Amino acid sequence: GVNTRVELAEVGEKMRRHICHDLMLSGVTIMDPATTYIDAQVRIGADTTLLPQTYLYGETIIGEDCVLGPDAHITDSHIGDGVIAKSCYIEQSEVGDGCKIGPFANVRPNSRLGKKVKLGDFVETKNAVLGDGVSAGHLSYLGDADVGERTNIGAGTITCNYDGKLKHPTVIGRGVFIGSHATLVAPVTVGDGAYTAAGSVITADVPPDALAVGRARQLVKTGWAARRRQALAEAENALAPPSLRAAEQASMASAPPPTHPE
Q1: DSSP per position, 227-257
Q2: Residue-wise pLDDT tens digits, 197-225
Q3: Which 3-state string (H, E, C) describes 193-231?
Q4: Catalytic residue positions?
Q5: Which of 31, 143, 158, 250 is least crowded, fewest Cβ atoms below 10 Å from its Cβ?
Q6: R_g (Cα) of the chain, nearest Å
Q7: Cβ(152)–Cβ(170) under 8 Å?
């Protein structure tokens, strides 16, 4: 029996050793069993590699030829064949064959990723369906979203799915190009093959094959920065004590003229 937390840790360590032993004999590579944590009900396909600090919990099923970790946390999820997942969290979700997840991606519950989906650095999904070949490489949030196959999600894109009271869906078609730092205010639909310009706030539906631009036109004021620096310098000089201003003027008057080497 287990009577103390010390004994609980010892029994847990023995159980993990037993699970890893059986998995390695079945064709799974575990680089460091001492830092790999696998629940008894987890199923893993042959030729999958588990790197250190991999945590597999609950009713998780892992396909063949995957590379998981280091620092991958997967709970109650179904992972297809040939998936690479590193430094990421996947919970109650489905990941299709050939996907690449992480580092630092967060696949939250009820996400379904098709085949060869890419979720890169600091990308988060929640209650989202991503079609085959969707790419979201950097710094994006896709919540309550349906994204068609071969669509590219630019860096910094977010779906504004919450209005303070209710959640709303965002639908993005097939072959869409979402420009960097786009904000999609749900409910909104972007049609197949459409483009959204970088930095746009999209609040209305975008027809297929259209370009949507939702940003202010750039204005350039020539010489503005130099004038501002001069004004700041004059204001700073005006605020200085009179004695300090007099001392600076005297120092400048008595200073020898600058020499210029030949």
Answers
A1: HHHHHHHHHHHHHS-HHHHHHHHHHHHHSPP
A2: 999 999 999 999 999 999 988 899 999 99
A3: CCEECCCCEECCCECCCCEECCCCCCCCCCCHHHHHHHH
A4: 138
A5: 250
A6: 29
A7: no
